[in-house]
Amino acid sequence: MKSVEKQQEYNLIASRLLEHVEMRSTDMADQQMRIASDSYADPERWEREMEQIFKRLPLLVGLSGELPEPGFYKTKNLLGVPLLLTRLKDGSVRAMLNACAHRGMQVAEGEGKCDKFACPYHAWLYGNDGSLQRVYGEDTYGAVDKAAMSLTQLPVYERGGLIFAVLTPGVEVDFEEFLGGMIEDIESLGFADWHYCGQRVIQGANWKVAYDGYLEGYHFAAAHPKTINARTYSNIMEFRGYGPHLLIAFPQRSIAKLNDVPKNERYKHENDGYDFVRTIFPNTSIFVAPEITQVAQLIPGPTVGENTTILHYIHHRKPETAEDTQKLEEMMDWLRDVVQTEDYDLGLKVQNGMASGAFSHVTFGRNERGNQYFHRWLEYYLSDDPERTQPEL
Ligand code: FES
Ligand SMILES: [Fe+2]
Fold it and tell me: Which among 201, 200, 222 is positioned nearest to 350, based on CA atoms?
């Protein structure tokens, strides 16, 4: 259910999009914005982005549907950090470092269902809440204070079908404040009960080169002539900022039909006249569609010029027949191929062009408002100026 404010906001966005389509206009920033090409390629700066942003802010670590029931677990590696996610009997989620208190071995592998983990090296036994339960040969090893030797817990937060954690133990964060209005918006979509269909993994350029592509529809006509451009107008957008996160609205080719829908009813027409991309700073982009919904999670590295992107797919209901499943699989392949061939292959060429030294800067237009906002927030988090103020759209 959407709140009344949210309904009003969506009504307004839909009406603005109708006007934009009619006038061939778009939401615009006051001015253009230049960014040094170097800032995409400098390893020292990349390290700071990893340390100050990726390792200190709440980061999407998974989707609720990846751990559908108590007892499920999944291991991951994010930015070189080995993670173990588990769902406990009471339904809550734990995010822990997947590293044994004895000598550091990864206690769990892959994914599955079980509520205990025996370390493969010397068989110390952990519960799925991370508690150390048994030390093999303790009479020979010597006494162990088990309570002090649990797996290391990370701050974790699950809401709206998404799981967030902070990759550095002990860092205090206010998840609610950070995720703010954006998580409320996502929660109202009901993701928490959706079916996790699966994922596709692709590789691309520097994480910001790749992420820039999720923040504007200026490239639709040239880069996606037969795919996205067939559904959506190119270069027409409306932006809303929730803290560092963005709600980006795009008019569908069929949006004119909303002229016949009363202004206060237009909020009901997401995916039926207009679409949204929702981003969660710094590295997640969600495209909701009734056919299938894509949650793109960009993972920088291992070097400055590379990223691995996990494309997670969810659907509002579980497929009932083999045919339904097949359809979803085909849709995941199709979307993966679009992102790989029309966005990420292009991103690698962008990266080469930037590195050629041809221009010292790239320039975002007034229409590329989402990119401007994203880069201003990056600067905000990287700055150590105590006087700094939070960017506004
Ligand atoms: S490293 Fe895990 S039991 Fe030795
Ligand atoms: Fe694109």
Answer: 222
- Ligand 1 proximal residues by C-beta, below 6 Å: 100, 102-103, 105, 119, 121-122, 124
Question: Which ligand is the nearest neighbour of the Cα of 277?
Answer: 2
DSSP state of 51: I
Q: pTM of whole model > 0.90? A: yes
Instruction: Please provide residue 387's backbone torsions phi and psi, each rounded to the nearest 5 degrees.
Output: -85, -5
Report CA(136)–ligand 1 centroid distance (Å).
Answer: 10
What domains are defined for the chain? 4-57+192-382 (3.90.380.10), 59-172 (2.102.10.10)
Nearest to 233 by CA among 210, 245, 250: 250
pLDDT (tens digit per residue) in 241-266: 999 999 999 999 999 999 999 999 99
- The span from the CA of 73 to the CA of 356, in Å, is 45
Using one digit for the tens of pLDDT, what is the confidence trace for 88-116? 999 999 999 999 999 999 999 999 999 99
